[in-house]
Amino acid sequence: MLNSVGSVSVRQFRLRQHDLLPPGKMEDIVKGAIGLATEGFFEGVADGAIRVRRDQVITRLHGGDRPGAELADGTVLPADLVVCATGFTQGVPFLDETVQKQLFDERGNFLLYRQIQPLRAPGLYFNGYNSSFFSPLNAEMAALWIAADLAGALALPDVETRHADVVGQLAFLDVATGAHHCRGTKIIPFSIHNVDEVLGDLGLQIPRFTRATHWLNPVSPAAYRKLTPELLARLAKTTPEPAAL
User: Fold this and answer.
1) DSSP letter for each residue of 139-154
2) Please, are residues 27 and 3 in contact by the beta-carbon 8 Å criterion?
3) CB atoms inside a 10 Å sphere around CB 129
4) Dihedral sign (CA 129, 185, 202, 207)
C-alpha cells in the first residue's frame, strides 16, 4: 500500500523529471518521517527559481564578508540567510519531576497505554500524543476513551498487563519505523489499529464493511459521527445523579 502511494507521488510531483527521485522504496522511506509537499516547491524547481543540491548536507557555515554554507562535496554556496530546521524534543517539563519519572522508559519513550494513559500516574491523561495519518480522528476517539474512564465505565487490564502491552508496542515501533517514532508518540504504522483498540475498550465500533473500506480508501471521519452520542447515552444511564444537598 505504501509503495503504491510512492508511485503516485513520483507521477504527481514529477520527481524523475526534476531529478528528485529518492533512492529506496516508500515503505522504507516513511519509517523515518512523513513529509508534506511545500506549496510552490516543485513549481519553483520546474521553472528554475529553486536549485536543488540533492544528497548533500551542510558541513560548515562561513561568516565574515562572504557568508555562505559549505556542503559535504566542498561546494560553498553564498547565503544571506540559513534556516536551521533542527526539530524539537517532545517533553513535559511543566509536570513535577516525580510524575515525569513515571512517564518514560529508560530510553525516554512515553509509556502510554493506548497512547493515552500513563501506567503509574493516576488521574493524568494525554490526548494528541498519537500522531497518525489522521491525527484528529485518533484524538477524538481518545477523548471518548478518557470520558468513559473518568466516568468509571472502562474495564481495563491490570497495570502489569497494560505495561506489557505498551512495551510490546514500542518494540514493534522500533522495527516498523527504524526507531524513529518520536519517543513512542508516532503511530503511523498502525493508525487504524489504534482507533480499533480504543473503540474495543469502549465496546463501540462502526460497521464492519465501512472498517474494511478504510483499509483501502481514505478514512471518512463522518463514519464515526454516531459514536459520541452513543457513548453519552450509555454514560447517562450508568452514571448516578449527584446527591441533592
Assistant:
1) HHHHHHHHHHHHTT--
2) yes
3) 22
4) positive
Question: Distance of CA 215 to CAs 1, 9, 203, Å?
Answer: 9, 19, 21
C-alpha 233/C-alpha 230 separation (Å) is 5
Alpha carbon 70 to its chain's center: 33
Cα–Cα distance, 154 to 151 (Å, whole number)? 8
pTM (2 d.p.): 0.75
Question: How open is the CA angle 115-127-129, to the nearest 5 degrees?
Answer: 55
Of 127, 121, 142, 135, nearest to 204 by C-alpha is 142
Q: What backbone torsions phi and psi does residue 139 show, to the nearest 5 degrees? A: -70, -40
8 Å CB contact between 202 and 140: no
pLDDT of residue 45: 93
Q: How far apart are CA 96 and CA 147, in angstroms?
A: 24
pLDDT, one tens digit per residue, over 34-92 is: 666 788 999 999 999 999 998 888 888 888 888 899 999 999 999 988 877 766 677 88
Euclidean distance between CA atoms 227 and 187, whole angstroms: 22
Query: Residue 22: how many CB atoms within 10 A of its CB?
Result: 13
Q: Write out the three cell numbers for 166.
A: 505498551
Sequence-distant contacts of 215-224: CB under 8 A, at least 24 apart:
219/133, 219/134, 219/137, 219/192, 221/134, 221/136, 221/137, 221/140, 224/137, 224/140, 224/141
Q: Are 99 and 121 a contacting pair, CB within 8 Å?
A: yes
Q: What is the mean pLDDT of residues 110-124?
A: 93
Q: How far apart are CA 211 and CA 192, in angstroms?
A: 9
